[in-house]
Amino acid sequence: MLFRFIRLIKFVWCHPLNKNDRLNAIWRVLSWQIISRIMPGPIALPFVNGTYLLTIKGMNGSTGNWYCGLHEYEDMGFVLHVLQPGDLFVDAGANIGSYSILAGSCKGVKVIAIEPVPEPFLWLKKNIKVNKLDSKIDSKNIGLADQKSTIQFSSNLDTLNHVVSKKENNNSVISVDVDKLDNILNDKCPTVIKIDVERYEFQVLNGAKHILDNPNLLAVIIELNGSGIRYGIEDNQIHKLIISKEFEPFIYDPQIQKLISLKGKFRSTSNTLYIRKKNEVDLRILKNTTHKLGTGQRI
C-alpha cells in the first residue's frame, strides 16, 4: 500500500498540469485520502467546463482528474481541443464516464457512452444526471465484440474489468450481452472514438468495420500494452488493422496544441492516438477555445 501511495505522489508531482502548482496538487491528494474515509457517500469532485464526477474511495480514474485536472493529459486534452459542435464522440468502455462527461461538456457535441458492467454503468448514469447532460449523452449498458452474443465479464476490478478468458480464475463474473459497434451505432459515425476495453480491442474493431471505413471518423484513441495476448491477439495485429484504414499514429501535446508523429509505431505503455486526415484535424485544433478544469487550470 505504501508503494502505491508513493507511486501516486510521483505521478501527481510529475504531471504536466501540476508543474507550476505542485503543492496544491499534493494537498488535493492528501485531503481526498482523509475526506473519502470520513464521508459516507459520493463526493462531487470538480472536473472540466463546470462539470463534476461523483466519486467514492477507490475510483482511481475519477480521483486522478481531481489531482491533476486531466488524468490522461494528452488524450483528454486532444478530445477537448478537436471536438466541434455537431460532432459525435463514442466512449467504448466508458466506466463511470470520465471521457463521456469530458466530451459532453464541449459545446454542441453528442456522446454515445458504452459500458458493459452494471456497477460502473450505474455511476455513469449518475454522472450524466448530476451534470444535466441527459440530452447530450446516450448511455448503453452493453458490451462490444465482433458478433452478437453473451460473454463473461469480471465485475470486481474497477477500471480493469474485462472479458474473462478461459484460463482466468475469478469468482466475480457476470454474463453480459454484447454486439458489434456497427450495429449499436446504426449508421451513425463518430468523429472520435475512445476504446478502452481491457485488451479486447481487436474484437471490438472487427465489429466496427463500417465505422472504420467511414471517412468522417478522424481519430481513434486506443491502448496497446501487450495484454491482448490473453485472447491470443498481439498488439501489432491491432496496429496493422487500424493503419490499413489510412490512420497514422501520433501523440498529442496539449500545451503547444500539436500532433507529434510516432513514425508508424505505436506506444506500448499508454494510449496511441490514430489520426486520419491530419490537415483537417490540425485546423480543428487551431480553432480550439480554452477549457477550464476543475482544479482552476485552463487548457
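The above is record 1. Record 2 follows with the same two-line structure.
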Amino acid sequence: MSFTMDYKSTWESNPMQILEVAIDDLIIMPELSGRSGDFKRDDKKVKELAESIKLRGQIEPAICGINTDEALGPLGAPVLYMGFGRAEACKQAGVGLLSMYSADPVSSVLVTSMHENTKRENLSPVQIAENIKRLRAAGYKDSAIASEMGWSKSQVSIYGRLLLTEADDVTPLYSKYALTQIHEEKIPARAAYQLADLGSSAKIDKAIHKALEKAKATGKKVKSADVIDDVREELEGDGEGGTAKKNGKKVTKARSMKQLLEHMESYNVAGVPEPVRKTVQLFLGFAAGTKNEKDLEKVLMKL
C-alpha cells in the first residue's frame, strides 16, 4: 500500500513537526479510543466538531505512532493513538488530520490513551470498565492500574466489577439494559457496583427499573444510597444482611465479617486518606482472621 507521504522517514527526520495525515492512510484501533464495543462516541458531538473544523480548522493536533506490526496493517502506516473524535470529525469535514508524532510502541499506548480520555472527556463507567478489562488481560494488576490512573484501588474494583460474569456460567451478570443505564449515568457507578451482590442479571434489571421509576416519579436523579438500601433489603431474605423491622421501625441487621471487608473494599469517599482505609481494612482483616498480630502491631506502632 502506498501512502500520501513516507510518514516514518518524515517524522524520524524531525519528530517535532505536525503533519497532515490522510484519513485513508490511518490505522485506527477502536480499543485505543476507550470507546469500542456498544458504547461509542456521541455522534452529535462529532458532527459539531466537524462543523467547527470546516469553519476554523483543527485547533489541537492528534497523536500518531508508526506501525511496526504486520498483523495491524501496512508497515510504516500511521497508527492513531489519541484524537479519535478529531479523526472522525476530519473525515466528516473531508480534510486530513493534523497529527504530532509519538515514538512509543502500540503496546504501551492503552494506559496513556485511557488516562487522557478519562481525565479530559469523562468516559462513562462502562467504558472505563472495558478499558480496565483490557489492561487486566494485558497483565496489569489492579494496583498498577490505580497507580497509572491516579485512582485508589477501590475505584478500579468498582469500575472493574461492571463486566463480571455469572458465578455458575459465562453469561454477563449485567445485561445490555443494565449497562446502558449505567453508561448513560442514570445509575451511579457506586450503586451499580453494589447491584452485583444480587447475583443475577434478572434481579439487577428489576432493581434498576425500580430505581428509575422512583426517580421519574420524584423528578430527582437516582441516589446510590437508595439503590444500596434496596439491595440490602433484597438480600435480607437470603440471610446476607440488610434491614429488618422492629416495633414498626427499620433497623440495621448485623453484617458478616466478609460483608464488612467487601464494603470496605468498595468504600471510597473524597478526602479520606488511603492510609486510613488501609488501617481500617487491616483491623477488619485481623478480626476476620486473615491478618496476623504482627501486621496489626506494625500499624499500631505508627499511630
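Strands lie at 19-21, 62-66, 78-82, 97-101, 243-246, 249-252.
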